[in-house]
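For the sake of transparency, this paper describes our internal protein records without simplification. Because each token names a local backbone shape, the row as a whole describes the fold. One such record is reproduced below, unchanged from the form in which we store it.
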Amino acid sequence: MHPILARGRFLALYLGIGVLVGGLLGAMLVAQAALDWTEALLVALPLAAVYAFVCLSGWYVSRSMPLVATSAVRILATALTSAVISSAVWLLVAHFWIGALVTRGWVDAAGAGAAGLDALIFSLGVLLYLLSLAISYLLAGFEQLRETERRQLRVQVLSREAELRSLKAQIDPHFLFNSLHSISALTGSDPAAARRMCLLLADFLRDSLALGGEERITLARELALVERFLAIERVRFGSRLQVDIDGRDAGSCLVPQLLLQPIVENAVTHGVAHMLEGGTIRVAASGHGRRLSILVENPCDADRPRGRGVGVGLANVRARLSALHGTDARLDATEQNGVWRVEVTMPLDDGH
């Protein structure tokens, strides 16, 4: 709904402006058609009220052709065409209204048929419509500015929440317990593997803490952190966990920090961990035109226990994408033929 029609005080203010325009038109009729003030206002005020609602259509024109996404030539041509059509309709209504007033004897026929009256009404109609369209674009710009500010605030809040959740997950006692337990078990049977896992765990925690303070990082750095996390998990799961990561073609693209971490954690915890024979976690990224696509796939057991953690992690990623890119980014999660598939698509940002 039009914002003026949705709020009573805006509608009252708008109609008040319409009365002023009617008074201006009445003054022109007094000067142009030699009508007295009573006759002029009887003609002008109803016509101004009708055209006030016709001019509301400028709002929908401005919404359908945003300044940032439409060429200037198209906007100008559409604006002129809309103004001419609206003014022509207004002139036709004026003919019927003035004719009715003359028939009833409320307006002098000589004054109503004065030369140049049609040109006056038509030209005023064009100017008023173009003015209303300009104001509509101005209001749309303010609305877009407010929406951008709200989105930036949401990005900051969600980014900070994601950072805190990620840091909490990275030092979660359960995660550390599993890793330290595996290290303890390996110290007797395979000291070299235990040492390797200690180093991987230290590198992972150090890098995750460093990335947590940044808003955007290259996809290559994000994938490197994913590889460190999966390297730790491979020490725990051994050959049951296989990894296939391919993001070379899109490594320089910028993505929100720690975007893939919740997705990959889900792939291990709720996917491979429930498969007796294990499986492969596949991460692939590619750019198509101005879009970046990141795919994470893992095998899953249809009879696995359904925990709550999966939805929370993916919901957080969705919220961050929405805050950053609105409807231009999305996350799709599907399960088919024993494969859990999460695909993230977003505008491609190469930092230039």
User: Anything to note?
Assistant: The mean pLDDT is 83. The radius of gyration is 33 Å. The chain has two domains: 3-149, 171-347.
